[in-house]
Amino acid sequence: MISARSRAGSAMCTGCGRSSDWENSRYERHVADEAVGGRPVRTDLLVRRLYCENPACPKVTFAEQIAGLTVRYQRRTAGLQAIVVAVARRADLPERRGGLDLTAYRQLTSGTTPRTGRSAPESY
Q1: pLDDT single digits (tens) 22-77
Q2: Which DSSP helix (H) or strand (E) runs through 83?
Q3: 68 or 117, which is more confident?
Q4: Which pairs count as long-range contacts for 19-26, CB under 8 Å and 24+ apart, including other chains?
Q5: Alpha carbon 40 to chain centroid distance?
Q6: Do 105 and 91 contact (CB within 8 A), yes or no?
């Protein structure tokens, strides 16, 4: 387990893109990452909720995102998400379904990968 927090002064609003440093609160976010030495890695990240300073923005508050580590609504890093998507796509190939050992696939995803693999953006 890794514990971390953001040191950024401001963050971009997810509603309008305007920068804000007006802090509302903080909360701990748990993000799964790629295994190191065969052991799972989890980052406990202290992130901020900020007020959007744009009165025309539909969002009142938003959570900061850490570039390269967090993605909105994800509980996995971009690196681990890429692995999950690759496994899902490989498991979904019709010619592979019969003989593919899906043990690691099931342990990795607890049954969520088929939905993830089909709807994942190409940026992963």
Answers
A1: 999 999 999 998 888 888 899 999 999 999 999 999 999 999 988 888 888 888 98
A2: helix 78-91
A3: 68
A4: 20/50, 20/51, 20/52, 20/53, 20/62, 21/50, 22/50, 22/51, 22/53, 23/48, 23/49, 23/50, 23/51, 24/48, 24/49, 24/50, 24/51, 24/61, 25/49
A5: 15
A6: yes
Residue with tokens 């850490």: 66
Look at residue 51 and give its three-state secondary structure.
Answer: strand
- Residue 96 has a pLDDT of 54
Whole-prediction pTM: 0.62
Contact 92, 114 (CB under 8 A): yes
d(CA 85, CA 90): 9
- Strand partners of residue 29: 45
- Read off the tokens for 24: 């509302």
Q: Are 76 and 32 in contact (CB under 8 A)?
A: yes
Give the chain's end-to-end CA distance (angstroms, integer). Answer: 24
- In the chain, where do the E strands start and end? 2-5, 11-12, 19-20, 23-36, 39-51, 61-63
